[in-house]
């Protein structure tokens, strides 16, 4: 029963394809599989740990200051991710740029803190954060892989398509219209397979 919080986050309540939140970092950082995976892992770290901490202190945080407290917790974990990327993955940090600090105001993370972690126990909040994180990372990674392959003929920077394909590639896929088109196609597939719409 409790594990439904985990499973729902992957498909039935997927942040990107069902709830349609967190689209800005999804579209902006899913140009390549590597960048998408980096953003997915960074956002997942923040989401899981902020959910745990919000749940742990929920009974001592006054109702009228809960949102500022959530933002302080979230920004603490974002700062940790920011410093780790700067220290150990400077190339990825340069690519992800402003989108790492913007995790603080990502609707997925703040929304889960307010809608779920503030009202549930630590273990359930962990499961919710883990499920939503996997759902978000899965979608952003799939989008990054598809966009990289179609636009550049590479996967993780390794050429996998023949030269003829690369010369006639779908270069528009690395631009915002390509991202919007792809997210629409993925949403339609999920709706048909899992929601019978």
Q: Count up the helices.
A: 9
Helix percentage? 55-70%
**How far apart are the termini?**
26 Å
Q: Strand order within the widest sheet?
A: 1-2
Total separate domains: 1
| Low-pLDDT sequence parts | none
SS class: mainly alpha
Radius of gyration: 18 Å
Q: Report the biggest beta sheet as strand number plus sense, adding barrel if it closes.
A: 2 strands, antiparallel
Mean pLDDT: 89
Bulk shape: globular
H-E string = HHHHHHHEEHH
Strand proportion, as a percent range, falls in under 5%
State the total count of DSSP E strands: 2
Oligomeric state of this protein: single chain
List the helices and strands and how they pair.
Blueprint: H1 4-10, H2 23-29, H3 33-57, H4 66-88, H5 90-96, H6 107-115, H7 122-152, E1 154-155, E2 158-159, H8 163-167, H9 176-194
Antiparallel strand pairs: 1-2
Helix pairs in contact: 1-7, 3-4, 3-6, 3-7, 4-5, 4-6
Detailed description of the structure:
The structure is a single chain. The chain has a two-stranded antiparallel ribbon. Helix 3 (33-57) runs parallel beside helix 6 (107-115), helix 3 (33-57) packs antiparallel against helix 7 and helix 4 (66-88) crosses helix 5. The model has no long low-confidence stretch (mean pLDDT 89). It has 9 helices and 2 strands. The protein has one domain (4-145). The protein is an all-alpha fold and 197 residues long.
Key terms:
mainly alpha, 197 residues, two-stranded antiparallel sheet, single chain, globular, 9 helices
